[in-house]
Amino acid sequence: MRYSILKLALIGFIFLSIGVFPHPGYSYTDSGEVPSGWDVWSCWYWPWLDSLNPNLYDAGEAMDLYDAYDVGADAQGWEYYYHGPAQNPEGWWGHCHAWAGASVWEPQPVNSKVLNGIKFWIRDRKGLMVETYDGCADGTNFELYAYRPSPGLFWRYLRDEIRGDDSMHGHGMAFVGELYYGSEVWNYPIFGFEVDYGSTYPYSGTMIISVAADSKPSYADSTTIYYTTFTYQFTGVTASGESPVDSGTWVGSGPYSRPDAIWRPYYATTWMQYVSNTQLDESHLSDILSNPKLSVISPNGGEVIPSGSTSTIEWAASSDAVNYNVLLSVDGGTLWERIATGVTNTSYLWGVPKPSGNKKGCLVKVIAFDSESNTVGTDTSDAPFSIEVVKLTSPDGEEAWASGTPHTLSWTVNGTKKAVARVKLFYTKNGGSTWVAIKTLGGDRQTYSWTIPKVKTAKQKCKVKVVLEDKNGSSLGNDVSDGYFTIEP
């Protein structure tokens, strides 16, 4: 059984408010969306056609990484043959049905995971999660289904299931719309709606449906919900009391004039319940896909955060976590200092400290507690991030500067522990074995025009160093060119 970080709170019924937000040309508006905690998520539809990249079977993508973790498996080979070029696919063939089904039920992966040295990025975890729902739309696993629903029936499902007026699960919840009325199949998780209709009975009007999107590969990398809308015209809808019934006709023709079907699969109680790829197994999928009770989202490794700035620390947590302590290490986890205690949200606006120099081994740790002050989870940034006091921006590597020519040295200074009184500049021609002074500048300067020294032969291991000092000569931070530049004769 999988653990879900979504809160299983019952959402109270929301009833139709007649005439509160009328739109031009209509008398009434009816609208709603799924409650917080049951949000859908965006992805890529992972096409079968090899020329539409990326594909789940590509090198370095989800199936390849799975095989590296589950040694002996050939999930990539299976995917290439059964969900790839061997099937002579059309461009629209892909995994939109599996993504839509997974998006309705499963919490979005919000962080990467490292298992046995194999790093599964968010896109890889999404891709594998999508694959686990591949068989959810085979026609035998629907808890909700309507083929070519009338406007009245579609409206009724939007009210009952999306908004939660009479949901089968006691709260608003998304369902899937097959929204291409024709031979192709395009599925989307529907999470919101707006119906604008007139006062004349039977009702005529416009339905606007909000769905998560899967049209760009970058959506698989992100935890942002990207969405699009479909707009339909209808007429002749009747009602029983305030509730629309199965009635009415769609206005217009063409593939986007009406929904082709709506459906929702049963919840998958195991990761293998809907799997088609025979090279996957429950144990390894659980390792990769299960969400911990607490997971640091940001900063999670690789970020460069300016000293003295403000930055948001964000994490995901299970429903039993009610408050959090947040800690910082600047030395790779040896020593920890408190940032905040008793935080009740899953994010914290952090005043970044001003350390005495750049710190490249920073980690954030979050500790979660339940209502009885028991620890329910602890998580740390997956990899170090940096707090940067000063950054040398030029030269930063690969430049080729001729002897005797002037060039501007530049650097950025962020928050410092004390006021900058002096800036010292140095250069090396031998990769840092020895350093030669360029200039000592007074005050908080951030540029200097340097005449390149003369050399008889090209020096290819040159770097510049900038050192900040306070009035007592104590270092406030330093930085060196990231790469080598060349001084030419």
Short description:
By secondary structure, the chain is mostly beta strands. The protein is built from six helices and 30 strands.
Task: Give a written overview of the molecule.
The protein has 489 residues and is mainly beta. It has 3 domains: 28-285, no CATH class; 294-388, Immunoglobulin-like; 390-488, Immunoglobulins (Immunoglobulin-like, Sandwich). 12% of the residues lie in helices and 36% in strands. The protein contains 6 helices and 30 strands. It has helices spanning 62-69, 75-82, 96-105, 122-132, 151-163, 282-289, and strands at residues 28-33, 113-115, 118-120, 142-147, 175-178, 187-197, 203-212, 227-237, 239-240, 243-244, 249-251, 261-265, 294-298, 304-306, 310-317, 323-329, 337-343, 347-351, 359-369, 375-380, 385-388, 390-394, 400-402, 406-413, 422-428, 436-442, 447-451, 459-469, 475-480, 485-488. Strands 1, 4, 5, 6, 7, 8, 11 and 12 form an 8-stranded antiparallel β-sheet that branches. Strands 14, 16, 17, 19, 20 and 21 form a 6-stranded mixed β-sheet that branches. Strand 9 and strand 10 (243-244) form a beta hairpin. Helix 1 runs antiparallel to helix 2 (75-82) and helix 1 (62-69) packs across helix 4. The longest helix has 13 residues, at 151-163. The relative contact order is 0.12. Residues 1-23 have low confidence and may be disordered.
